[in-house]
Amino acid sequence: MKCPYCQSEMERGKLKNRGGVFFLPDGETMPKLYIKAEFEKHRAISFPPYLLDTKPEYPAAYVCRTCGKIIMDFHGA
Question: What are the pLDDT digits (tens) for 58-71?
Answer without folding.
Answer: 678 899 999 999 99
